[in-house]
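User: I'm writing a tutorial on reading structure tokens. Could you give me a worked example: one chain, its sequence, then its tokens, then a sentence or two explaining what the tokens reveal?
Assistant: Sure. Here is the example chain.
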Amino acid sequence: MIFGRVKSIDAILATAQKKALPRTLGALQLTLFGVGCVIGTGIFVLTSAGAQKAGPGLMLAFLIAGLICIVAALCYAEIASMLPVAGSAYTYTYSVMGEILAWTVGWALVLEYAVAASAVSVGWSGYFSGTILKATFGIELPSWLAGAPLAFGGIEGGLINLPAVIIALLVTWLLMIGTSESARVNAVLVAIKVTALTAFIVLTLPKTDMANFNPFLPAGVFGGFGTGIGAVGAAATIFFAYVGFDAVSTAAEETKNPQRNVPIGLIGSLLICTVFYILVAAGAVGTIGGQPIMGPNGIPFPAGSEELARQCAMAEHSAKLVCSNEALAHVLREIGFGTVGNMLGYAAFIALPSVILILLFGQTRIFFVMARDGLLPEGLSKIHPKWGTPYVVTAITGGVVAFAAALLPVGKLADVANAGTLYAFLMVAIAVLILRVKEPNRERSFRSPLIWFVAPATILVACSCISTCPLMRCWCCRVGRS
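And here are its predicted structure tokens:
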């Protein structure tokens, strides 16, 4: 084979039966896993950036991004129902296209999960040091304990990012002691996030003014996919507020009745998140307005640009949605709910560990299957006799994530994380198409509707974004994790 040996679906299922993880998760827990990973910092911080690109059309941008992910999720759901084992895109690629491409997918997923987990750990450290310690208790953590010493351009000033290390190791310990325990903690954290967003929706929607939605698309629908202007351009940015739902498929081997529950978890979590995102966008724009700040040529200033920062520093623009770094809390303060706005900030702080948990969960399961297949040392696939988890690979992965979070400005490394996600989308869509041709009669408890449209659409979107990302550093890779 040009891409190395192929491990058939039957062989993969037989291997999984010999060294399998305990099945403890149900459809609800899987759905909460997906929601836990998707609803992170993205909805709390990308709202303002999306509004600057699309204006009130931010709602349409969330819908477009959600539909893109749902299309990819249909491909994942079909192949996961055929191969209910851990490993996600890596395993699917191995079964269809061979171990060489499977190897590349496995390491691409390192970009998606491990690097992103380090980045989110650093983000949590910022909330802990600023919002909790300094703003709430008046305690300022010394810079040498809360900053990364290594940067691409030289010394950043810190010695170790201690809070980032602590949260990464705590989550690693939780994953080691049991999957069901991790799922219960994740359920609590997801409940907090969903409650916070529900409170935001309930408080803002009754105060919406329809005049704030006019014009609805100040930069048009296709204002510029490559430049990030308009609803489609904004969708390319906030698409990354959804990334992480595919972690659900890595839990297939630990799921009861995976042929039924994995598709429910994949598609259900995306539907829930899409509805929340659209309603939150409607509440934010409808209350204080979401019109972008336009340049002299009638085109919105680029989100995050120095010129936009200068405009936001002016008194006439400072209170606008597009100028806030904490968009949802800012909206609540502007409409007279300052205390609730501050509580929303705490909810964002509490939410981040659930994102780290699911990212680490997905990464360790992929490494576990690679070790079980012989593409990594077999010792990494050891299962703890009491906890029933792949404790060796979990400990090592958590240690590496903590090390990176301690020493590196991981936000820069996270620029490439999304390219790994898109590559995985691409390979899963190709694998589904090949299996439809090669094994049309194999049992599929879930069959994607319109597969000859769904899979090519996934491939097209993934290729379009990857192709604009030379050296994995481009406009579509600069947003980081949700």
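What the tokens reveal: Residues 99-137 form the longest helix (39 residues). The CA atoms of residues 310 and 378 lie 55 Å apart.
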